[in-house]
Design brief:
Layout lengths: L1 E5 L3 H12 L3 E5 L3 H8 L10 H10 L3 E4 L2 H7 L2 E4 L14 H13 L4 E5 L7 H16 L6 E5 L9 H6 L4 E5 L2 H14 L10 E5 H32 L3 H9 L20 H14 L5 H13 L2 H10 L7 E5 L14 H11 L3 E5 L4 H12 L9 E3 L12 E4 L11 H7 L4 E4 L6 H6 L3 E3 L6 H5 L4 H10 L3
Parallel strand pairs: 1-2, 1-4, 2-3, 4-5, 5-6, 7-8, 9-10, 9-12, 10-11, 12-13, 13-14
The structure holds uridine-5'-diphosphate-xylopyranose (UDX).
The site of uridine-5'-diphosphate-xylopyranose has 19 residues, from helix 9.
Amino acid sequence: MKIAVVGAGYVGLVTAACLAELGNDVMCIDKDHGRVALLQAGGVPIYEPGLDDWVQRNQHAGRLRFGTAMAPAVTHAELIFIAVGTPPQEDGSADLQHVLAVAQHIGQHLNGFKVVVNKSTVPVGTARQVERVLHEAQQTRGTCVHEVAVVSNPEFLKEGAAIHDFMHPDRIVIGLPEGATGDRARTLLARLYAPFNRHHERTVWMDVASAELTKYASNAMLAMRISFMNEVALLADAVGADIDAVRRGVGADSRIGPSFLYAGTGYGGSCFPKDTRALAHSAAGHGLRMRLVEATEAVNAAQKQVLVQQVCGRFGGDLRGLRFGIWGLAFKPNTNDMREAPSRTVIAELLARGAELQVHDPVATSEARRALSQDLGRPVAEIDSLRFVDEPLDALLAVDALLVLTEWKCFHHPDFAAMAQHMRAPIIFDGRNLYDPAQLQALGFVYQGIGRRNQAASRARVSPQAETHRRVAHPG
Ligand code: UDX
């Protein structure tokens, strides 16, 4: 089928590459000339495992082309996907200016019936707005007005697993307009997604508003599970229970299921924080309060501070003269995305308390430099107390403790003996519950996870080495 994808960002690129892989003829366009030039030259502007291969393979096969001009893409396509950003505004609502600008451009070049498929995460009612803009753009152009079906087809892919998620969807949610245009769109989309439905029907057909709301409800539900488990983890510490055992017990109930029950340093990324706020904002616009969604967000903001509290519980609020290693900066593994990453909160707080930090991430260093420079109000290169290092063990050199913030695979089974040798004191604050507390205690580490019976560790005294070091660095 002939397809245009507008937006060569995360969702757009993955959608374009995967639809081309299925044998479709795909034109992916973006207004960013630099990005398009890079893609045309075989580069991929984002970090996503496997995506560069998929893009290049389909480019070579002639099924995937990149460009900046809207007109050829619109005239080429039967189906036009809108996959542009909907960044949050100050008040938490989604900014629709890019989506509506794209709709206007599409409207100016329509040459027959098209299905416009919205993949961007947009509040309920956006498809109607897109429809109106398409109509008005055609009227302004002064030619005949072509029929358009505006469809909602939200994307559920996870960063770091995007290709797998696209190619093995749990479900494909499609919201159709009423009437004959909706029927025509259904026929085309059923054909497009047929390869996913061969053994098992995965498409969930519905109306447009319900599809738009499904995306927000799904993300809010997942975020809520995480915040709930983070709250249970705090209680687990207080009562001497182990959140990992609780997670296994709770997740074994088939009505609940095992996913998204991992307590940690709080969720980040481009979706959960933005979408929970946008959902609460949408509800408020209709005179409703979504208390669970608001609480989910508030619990998450507090959770990003938990590791800092643990550090202060052990070393006191004044961290001058103390040095900490940090493993992991990205909001989760297999991405270089720093948006709303808990590491940003933790690093800003520790630096503000006078700590010295040695940080390592296997992939996100450049992104982290940019994000932290922005947060800290000056280039990180000018901040002596914040050092980026290339090797995990280098981050541990003479540190008073290690903080694990992202569960990259390379941190799962480290050489604990080598770690202890590098560290001034063998103390680990594990924000991702990667390690077995009993094993680490046996190896001589002081270990604090999230909800892993932390009482004993937090009651323990500061290590004599750290005290001595601090007294020397800050006499008086
Ligand atoms: C999410 C949704 O999963 C996806 O369907 C949607 O399209 C976009 O938002 P993504 O943001 O890429 O995807 O990452 P995900 O793997 O879902 O993790 C989100 C955050 O939750 C991360 O910060 C992760 O560390 C955290 N998380 C996840 C937990 O703290 N505990 C868990 O059990 C799962």
